[in-house]
Specification:
It is a single chain. This protein is an alpha/beta fold. It has a single domain, classed as 3-Layer(aba) Sandwich (Rossmann fold), CATH 3.40.50. It contains four helices and six strands. The N and C termini lie far apart (34 Å). It has helices spanning 28-43, 57-70, 88-96, 113-121, and strands spanning 2-8, 50-53, 78-79, 104-109, 134-139, 152-157.
Length: 165
């Protein structure tokens, strides 16, 4: 059994137009949502074997915050350039190339690629993965053999689900 958990980076700031898209930091809402989702994952007992992230500032910050909360060693996060400005095809290529010994993988990245790959790999119809949203899917096949719509939804979590608690 393989588990693939996909998370969109937390909300980022557009306040400083001198920064490139890659450099944009988390905004106040993102700085609240990233640890919130880390706590949600921790309560689920979630701890992936590998955590892969886009190296863009907002994704990297989200990954570091979440990893710290769930007890994943931040120095073991793999920052992979191809996750930034990725496409559904590129994400699928990355997933199919994962080491078979890594049964539980988390990828932190960006839309629209994350929403597209979730919809491609499962019957879970998601119009848009919100910022800091997390979808976890399970697969019976090897990473290299994953086919469309084979993923079974394990959970879908997002910050607004917990507002007002």
């Amino acid at each position: 059994m393989k588990t693939l958990t996909l998370m969109r980076h937390a909300k980022s700031s557009w306040d400083d137009f001198s920064l490139s898209d890659f450099q944009r930091p988390l905004n106040a809402r993102g700085e609240y949502a990233a640890p919130l989702m880390g706590e949600v994952l921790k309560r689920r007992g979630f701890l992936p074997k590998r955590l892969l992230s886009s190296p863009a500032n907002r994704a990297k910050s989200t990954a570091l915050i979440v990893a710290d909360i769930i007890g994943f060693a931040t120095e073991d996060i793999a920052f992979i350039d191809s996750i930034y400005e990725s496409s559904e095809f590129n994400l699928l290529t990355l997933i199919k190339s994962l080491d078979e010994d890594d049964s539980d993988i988390m990828i932190i990245g960006h839309n629209p690629a994350l929403t597209a790959i979730i919809n491609k790999l499962s019957h879970f119809a998601l119009p848009n993965l919100p910022t800091a949203g997390v979808v976890s899917l399970s697969f019976k096949s090897a990473w290299a053999d994953i086919k469309p719509y084979e993923g079974e939804l394990l959970f879908y979590e997002y910050p607004k689900k917990y507002e007002g608690l």
